[in-house]
Amino acid sequence: MSLAIMIQGTASDVGKSMLVAGLCRIFAQDGHRTAPFKSQNMALNSGITPDGKEMGRAQIFQAEAAGIAPDVRMNPVLLKPTSDRKAQVVLMGKVATNMDAVTYHNYKPQLKTQIREVYQSLASEHDVMVLEGAGSPAEINLRDRDIVNMGMAELAECPVILVADIDRGGVFAAIYGTIALLLEHEKWRVKGVIINKFRGDVALLYSGIEQIEALTGVPVLGVMPWLDVDLEDEDSVVLDRGKYDAVTPKELDVAVLQLPYMSNFTDFNALAAQPDVRLRYVSKPEELKNSDLVIVPGSKNTLGDLRWLRENGLEKALLAHHSRDGAVLGICGGYQMLGQHIYDEVESGLGEMPGIGLLNVVTRFANEKTTTRVAGNVQTHLLGIFSASSGAPLQGYEIHMGETTRGENTSAFATFTQCNMQPYHNVDGAISHDGRVLGTYLHGLFDSGEFTRSLLDGLRQRKGLNAWDGEAFDYQKHKDHQFSKLADAMREHIDISRIYQIMREHQEQAV
């Protein structure tokens, strides 16, 4: 029987995903085969496992922290919102259906047996399981059919640590109120509290910590300071809170259009980490001025987001940027928007719509979703700013419902020779005849260091700058260092030995 601990939060975006990743790294460093698990994830950031299954990005980067390959069993249920009321339901890595919130809430009890079996299967192969909740366990309107917070803790028979975010204020009220709203058998599972994102002198918290421990009977296991770690965020709420609002001048300015249904914004983490890039998420036409590259990202509602671009003037600003000899890159839904026309009777319900018209391609949506991990190379003899990337190796993943056809005067971007670890041959993407507009279905594009550096050096050359002469930037090495930095900070500020004790005591009680 594996050891297990579950991280739940007083609210969304309190740092659960990051702390789970840190615990995964710590337990792996200590020699334990460790795996993350989140029964139900609602996110537009997803990735593909080596065998072609779709799962939440948070569990993928937590698996990376544990030093193991992602496995769809780590996230058996993924909900991808397509509107304010509906979501695509992905079960064990494949699209099952689309449901509104009420229908899905009524459907959840049918998932319990499958979730339990999946969890037990994964746990049987690992020494330690680190589970993550969603939102808050105090959402009492959802309690009767919960499969991701206390309902999951009961299925896994594991103890819980509650995480509270002090940066947003009211941390002690959040801790007390959350525990007070739990049922007695749920309160029994809460074995500790972590206060997260603290800025200042921790001595100022001591009296409050003593009082909250006395009021709840639950010990505070640590106070995590606000950390400057560069790791993936699960929720796009971090963009609204200004994560990428730094005004430090850099030699290259890259603007990403912040679409309402933007998916996989984690595509741009590797780009933002480049030493000569200032990456900005923009939602106003005037913010495109002075950009060296404008990126149209993926979308879970391509036609809805395209209509939004038109209504708020960003399409016109993007065309003006292109007319000023500016470079444009579209990924997945963004690639589709840059084309001539989109026919969609599957995803948005909007039918069809003319595209932005910067690429001579046409997209038709299909009922079956493409979910693949691919590897290959950029085509040779490319034009314009992308010419420096000719032949560069690429790897990443595809998640899309559309099939896009290239027209005249439009070259393919890449040739893929491997798909889901099997030999393969297919061409992807499109480049405009002037060499200034690129579209591709490849997520994780910028994780390919040689391609990214050559593209950025092409942009530098257009500005009259020399190629970057600093040390080559290795994003995977950078990310691994960030995981270790997070783990070191958690060892310093959290009683990890007490967490081990909690897991072992609970295991003994379960036996």
TrEMBL record:
<dbReference type="InterPro" id="IPR047045">
    <property type="entry name" value="CobQ_N"/>
</dbReference>
<protein>
    <recommendedName>
        <fullName>Cobyric acid synthase</fullName>
    </recommendedName>
</protein>
<dbReference type="InterPro" id="IPR004459">
    <property type="entry name" value="CobQ_synth"/>
</dbReference>
<dbReference type="InterPro" id="IPR027417">
    <property type="entry name" value="P-loop_NTPase"/>
</dbReference>
<comment type="function">
    <text>Catalyzes amidations at positions B, D, E, and G on adenosylcobyrinic A,C-diamide. NH(2) groups are provided by glutamine, and one molecule of ATP is hydrogenolyzed for each amidation.</text>
</comment>
<dbReference type="InterPro" id="IPR002586">
    <property type="entry name" value="CobQ/CobB/MinD/ParA_Nub-bd_dom"/>
</dbReference>
<dbReference type="InterPro" id="IPR033949">
    <property type="entry name" value="CobQ_GATase1"/>
</dbReference>
<keyword id="KW-0315">Glutamine amidotransferase</keyword>
<dbReference type="InterPro" id="IPR029062">
    <property type="entry name" value="Class_I_gatase-like"/>
</dbReference>
<feature type="domain" description="CobB/CobQ-like glutamine amidotransferase">
    <location>
        <begin position="253"/>
        <end position="450"/>
    </location>
</feature>
<keyword id="KW-0169">Cobalamin biosynthesis</keyword>
<comment type="pathway">
    <text>Cofactor biosynthesis; adenosylcobalamin biosynthesis.</text>
</comment>
<comment type="similarity">
    <text>Belongs to the CobB/CobQ family. CobQ subfamily.</text>
</comment>
<feature type="active site" description="Nucleophile">
    <location>
        <position position="332"/>
    </location>
</feature>
<dbReference type="Pfam" id="PF01656">
    <property type="entry name" value="CbiA"/>
</dbReference>
<feature type="domain" description="CobQ/CobB/MinD/ParA nucleotide binding">
    <location>
        <begin position="5"/>
        <end position="228"/>
    </location>
</feature>
<feature type="active site">
    <location>
        <position position="443"/>
    </location>
</feature>
<dbReference type="InterPro" id="IPR011698">
    <property type="entry name" value="GATase_3"/>
</dbReference>
<dbReference type="Pfam" id="PF07685">
    <property type="entry name" value="GATase_3"/>
</dbReference>
